[in-house]
Amino acid sequence: MKKVLVLYYSQSGQLKKMVNSVTAPLLKSDDVSVDYHKIQPVTKYPYPWPFYPFFDAFPEAIYMNGCPVEEIEGLHEQYDLIILGYTIWFLSPSIPVTGFLQSDQAKKIFKNTPVVTLIACRDMWVMAQEKMKKLLKDLDATLIDNVVLTDQGGSLYAFLTTPRWLLTGKKDPVFGLPAAGVSTKDMKASVRFGERLLDGLQKDEEKLKQPMLKSMGAVSVNGKLVATEKIATRSFMIWGKLIQKAGAPGSFARKIVITIYTVFLVTLVLTIVPLNILVKNIIYPFRKKQIEESVKYYEKPSGR
Ligand SMILES: Cc1cc2nc3c(=O)[nH]c(=O)nc-3n(C[C@H](O)[C@H](O)[C@H](O)COP(=O)(O)O)c2cc1C
Hints:
Layout (H helix, E strand, L loop, with lengths): L1 E7 L5 H15 L3 E7 L12 H6 L1 H5 L18 E6 L1 E2 L2 E2 L1 H7 L2 H7 L3 E8 L4 H13 L3 E9 L4 H14 L15 H6 L1 H12 L20 H24 L5 H19 L1 H28 L5
Parallel strand pairs: 1-2, 1-3, 3-6, 6-7
Antiparallel strand pairs: 4-5
Bound molecules: flavin mononucleotide.
């Protein structure tokens, strides 16, 4: 019987829904035994998020500082496959997931093991997945597949609907905007990845440490967003350092720098981001080949 470990960290339950949809075929099968665990930070993060704690998490997320996490009891020493569900916090894997992947327990269970990552996020995950690749490489694990679901309605709407959801807990449609989060249709359709993984496990395909989810629409990278993610990462690194230097998480001095930062961020979103989109659209035909190549790279290992 194949042994599969499923790990995830979800606050509102959205990512958990995706993990449940993908892993349902494995849980029903007699050929697979599934250990299913939530990663638990020692100090819980709030949800919905108050304003300051939300931005206070930003420097530690971008600098991948992680956080202490509870040890998971009753794990086997080795698994045939690990399925890791994670969300994106400030273009990085969420702090609890980073914390777990930096733990001694992760060093033991991930070693020499194929890993499938599952992401449910707004729509900016490419730089975070690059960081995830590094975390997994440091653990001697092999990333064989990546599946990503993004919030419905596209980038512009999600810029409004996702922060409203995270700061208030409200996901319903307002002012003609779509509901926040991943669509129910995409969520349900993700069961196909679990069906294929089950088929692959039954045929020992995980031993090849090659993708099993090719040509199934596992990911779709928006080439124009990649450049925005790269610029945003550079700016996040600078502001992250400034906020960390101001004081410890939760301190008054840090709140002052966070306030200045959010004014900067809102100005950026209202001015530079639309300008950047316009410029990207103008230069796209001239850089089409280069962008398409980078898209192919970021869509690996599963591809479209
Ligand atoms: C602090 C924080 C920062 C976030 N930053 C990003 C981001 O950079 N890119 C993105 O696509 N989504 C981002 N999100 C959205 C999450 O990836 C995710 O969609 C949302 O938190 C719901 O996940 P849940 O299953 O944990 O409730 C962020 C969420 C939080 C809480």
